[in-house]
Amino acid sequence: MQSNARYQGAAVCGPRTLIIGDLHLCPSRPDITAAFARFVEHELENVEALYIVGDLFEFWIGDDDINAFTDQIAQIIQAATAKTQVYFSHGNRDFALGQRFSQRTGMILLPEIACVELYGHTTVILHGDSLCTDDVEYQKFRTLRNKPWFRFVTAAMPLKLRRYLSDRGRAKSKDRAQQDDYQIVDVTEQAVDSVMREYNASRMIHGHTHRPCIHQLDEGRERLVVGDWYSQESVLVLTQDGATLHRSAL
């Protein structure tokens, strides 16, 4: 039977792993939600695992924010986990996603930096915001955000207040992205090299920058960057034969 899958990589009949990220799902973009649902329905056959490298959501204010939209996405992820193992790395927009939603959907939460063996490569997988070390203001906030007391206090806030603060934070982030220099919002070579050497990795996979590319580094290493889903699907396919980036219009 002919497969309807588009993202099959080089080994059409062999095992493959898919990587996506930066979908930024939100109620105001039902087209992206529909694309994600189609992806889950058609692209997960003969897939060993699906990795979502953060910012699956445009914002996530807590697992207790249960509504029609989060229910819809939970059902889509449940359909994905019924077909294959789904792993999730927290992004800067959905760092508050927790065990309750993970258990609800069957999605496995990864540590901030996950190190796995994929098709003969020691691979580090992360969202990528921690690699943007020239963005000093954001890194200060990120350090604060990761403190247990900060997470406890914000989780205890009323949903309405969390939603208000999230809206303000996203508006500020959008303004800064329009003003900042290109290099400040991209990763730094030093941060990439430091992480890869710490884990003795030959591959790094991340998102966050919205600049999909397969970068060939020194010593035969690779940095694989998945793109966002604002106007296209961006899917990284890994097989025994290598890595390929695919783009498809929404």
From TrEMBL:
The keyword Metal-binding applies. Substrate binds at N92, R93, D135, S173, H208. SUPFAM superfamilies: Metallo-dependent phosphatases. It catalyses: UDP-2-N,3-O-bis[(3R)-3-hydroxytetradecanoyl]-alpha-D-glucosamine + H2O = 2-N,3-O-bis[(3R)-3-hydroxytetradecanoyl]-alpha-D-glucosaminyl 1-phosphate + UMP + 2 H(+). Its cofactor is Mn(2+). It holds the Pfam family Metallophos. Gene3D superfamilies: 3.60.21.10. Keywords: Cell inner membrane, Cell membrane, Hydrolase, Lipid A biosynthesis, Lipid biosynthesis, Lipid metabolism, Manganese, Membrane, Metal-binding. Binds 2 Mn(2+) ions per subunit in a binuclear metal center. Residues 16-212 form the Calcineurin-like phosphoesterase domain. Pathway: Glycolipid biosynthesis; lipid IV(A) biosynthesis; lipid IV(A) from (3R)-3-hydroxytetradecanoyl-[acyl-carrier-protein] and UDP-N-acetyl-alpha-D-glucosamine: step 4/6. Mn(2+) 2 binds at D55, N92, H127, H208. It is a peripheral membrane protein. InterPro entries: Calcineurin-like_PHP, LpxH-like, Metallo-depent_PP-like, UDP-diacylglucosamine_Hdrlase. The keyword Membrane applies. Its main location: membrane. Mn(2+) 1 binds at D22, H24, D55, H210. It is an enzyme of class 3 (hydrolase). Its EC number is 3.6.1.54. It is found in: Cell inner membrane. CDD domains: MPP_YbbF-LpxH. Hydrolyzes the pyrophosphate bond of UDP-2,3-diacylglucosamine to yield 2,3-diacylglucosamine 1-phosphate (lipid X) and UMP by catalyzing the attack of water at the alpha-P atom. Involved in the biosynthesis of lipid A, a phosphorylated glycolipid that anchors the lipopolysaccharide to the outer membrane of the cell. Belongs to the LpxH family. This is UDP-2,3-diacylglucosamine hydrolase. It comes from Ferrimonas pelagia. The gene is lpxH.
